[in-house]
Amino acid sequence: MAVTTRSPSLTSDPPAGAVERARRADEATGAFFSTWVVVGLFVDGWAHNAGKPEDFWTPWHALLYSGFLTGMVTFGAVEVVRRRRGLVVPGDRLALAGFGLFAVGGAADMAWHTAFGVEEDLEALLSPSHLLLMGAGLLIVTAPVRGALGRPGAARSWAGFAPAAVGVTLAVAVASFFLQFASALHVADPGAFAAGAGDGRQALAVVGVLVSTAFLSGAVVWVASRWPAPPAGTFTLVFGAVAVLMAALGGLDELVLAVPVAGGGALADALLARRRDLRLVATAVPMAMWAAWLATYHATRGLGWPAELTGGTVVLAGLVGYALTLLPVAAPVGATAAAPSPTAR
After folding, report:
1. Hey, where are the domains in the chain?
2. Which of 1, 48, 55, 131 has the fewest beta carbons closer than 10 A?
3. Is the per-residue pLDDT at 336 higher than 50?
4. DSSP readout, 76-132?
């Protein structure tokens, strides 16, 4: 998250181990407070969906904003202590921008609620103040990922890669949260999976599968393009945690549907551990995952789709995953970052 250097006024350089520990501490601290904020976000989303009392001054808003405020104060205090010890820690400019935007977004959210009342349903996800908070949150939660990109050997073990894995997980979760109306990980319209639902509703359900595929498979392609062999369990965490958080929006009534999603992450881990071609991984994982998801849905709730729609959805998910591997992959940040995998081209 940051590179630590000695103040020019001091003659001795800090030990390399101290620099590495400082960088890892920043990444771990960032992952902790980012998790706090995102859990608060999903609790707030659950409260909206459950029809809880709506106001800016609610326990769920308190959880969300307390994580942000505590994290900001902690990072500020750490910076003061380091400077007093002669250690200058250049900040992650994107993370600093995220903190600033989050503060502006929080103030705007309070003003918006005061002027226009509390949003409901789709309006709550698309209000300008909430979208500003989303953008700021993405800048903050991805700070550990940017830190790992500039640290050689970050993916050699879980000890070094865990904050980055958490950052990727939270980024996918935040994006999924704000597009929950178009995500199959949160079944907003169970009737769309029933027989005779109509083409319009069924089409939206298929779109939900494809949007979720883009987020999850996109994480696989992006991470594996920079770290071809991430630690085992990386994508089990990403897929499983995102699926559980999205299920929480409905009060965990859909928790059983998180199992095949976590299984998709485990399959990605297994294939990458065997150094399988990334195009194969990005195609096979969503196909297997959604086939298992639809089978689980049928077993627990009843799926009324014809075989053509069910099979076509699985195939489309695989095509979306494959298409992601054809997109230009941005060059890794920093000269010491891992080179992209040739299979991502």
Report:
1. 1-165, 179-345
2. 55
3. no
4. HHHHHHHHHTTEE----HHHHHHHHHHHHHHHHHHHHHHHH----THHHHH-HHHHH
